[in-house]
Amino acid sequence: MERETHILVITYPLQGHINPMLQFSKRLASKGARVTLVTTSTIRNSMQALQGASSVNIEIISDGSEGDENLENLIATLDRFKVIVSQSLAEYIEKLDSSNYPPKFVVYDFVLPWALDVAKKYGLDGAPFFTQSCAVSVIYYHLKQGTIRLPIEGPTVSLPSLPKLTIDDISSFLSNPSSYPPLLNLALDLFSNFLEAKWLFFSSFMDLELEVVNWMASQQWPIKTIGPTIPSMYLDKRLENDKEYGLHLFKPDVDACIKWLDTKETHSVVYTSFGSLASLGEEQMQELTWGLKNSSCYFLWIVRETEQKKLPTNFLQETAGKGLVVSWCPQLEVLAHKAIGCFMTHCGWNSTLEALSLGVPMVAMPQWTDQLTNAKFIVDVWKVGVRIKLDERGIATKEEIELCIREVIGGERGKEMRGNSIRWKELAKEAMDEGGSSDKNIEDFVAKLVCS
Ligand code: UDP
């Protein structure tokens, strides 16, 4: 296949967006396309910890900051981001147009719907890439359509192709619209121009969300599931050179984690992480510490540097020998390790997909946005985990945490969940294997682009 089919893949500079879009880029490159992953200057400095992504070019364009922006600020200032980045993207496309590799197509992060307008200005087709589940996307679509009215009231919400959802299963900014206006505006904006896109790429796979995918297809949406977006080394051996995981925005403590896990028995460790953004209150950190300790399991806990001050002062003495706390880890390598018994997770979409694809059952402790819906599916649809119940203060108590861990790691139901997880792992692999549903979708996209 010729190499000049150049695809730009534009990602919002957050870890949970970069990871799946980079893996997707690698898959496109493996099908013969030239791919440039474009991100923005906010993460210029943190990206120094990145590990090479050999088959994909990386380009940084300006978002008006030079590596020092607080990421939460970034979400709050999406309007400014839009103005600056649409200008830098236009300049970048113009520059490429007069190079040897003019772009042929733009895949853009779903939170940047305006990137399609920029692409079209230069005669390019585009497709959004959704880094959230199909189910969550359909909920936001119904919000845009007015099928869901705000604030959400009543005990349940019924939407086509989805299980009945309670308020606890839906993003908090829908039940409480004034809680975080930038996210509500973002959710409303997502579907502003999506039918002008050539395709809709979803970081998910057919078997995982069959009913929702079928519903989307019945609406004539040009949907293509292309996940799970996991490096091929974890799923199959076809891309032998695909050794690196990706672009970390935090420095992973690889040796410490893996060496420590190597000393532990099979399925004996609780891996605990709340992703790259979530921040627990001090009281919650205390309860979590004692819940982990009282479970009597070994635990590997990711506490980002900015969160570490919330750890109880006597934490190290109290949990000596049982726990390892690091500020960031190579999560896929950790989840793939035989010592891991369960994953206590905030249910970010990537973490959820990674656990499902590696056969690890979960203790779900969602914090906000799509995580609440993901938790619902983890427990009631895919049946691979339990969800922590919050008390009247909104806190997960140490007793509840201990109970949930024991249930997943030791109990009878835990065995069932592990069995279900293994089944999802097989289906994830099948989707990405040669001729599998996601692999075919990627192949088809590149083939059509080459012929166009
Ligand atoms: N991750 C990692 N090391 C860690 C914690 C997280 O590599 O110590 C990765 C994880 O594998 C996932 C991403 O960071 O791909 C987090 O994305 P997710 O959607 O789960 O959560 P977010 O950070 O967006 O809330």
Automatic annotation (TrEMBL):
Record InterPro entries: UDP_glucos_trans, UDP_glycos_trans_CS
Nucleotide-binding is among the record's keywords: no
Alphabetized GO MF terms: quercetin 3-O-glucosyltransferase activity; quercetin 7-O-glucosyltransferase activity
Record CDD domains: GT1_Gtf-like (cd03784)
Pfam family of the protein (one): UDPGT
EC number: 2.4.1.-
Keyword line: Glycosyltransferase, Transferase
Family: Belongs to the UDP-glycosyltransferase family.
Protein's recorded name: Glycosyltransferase
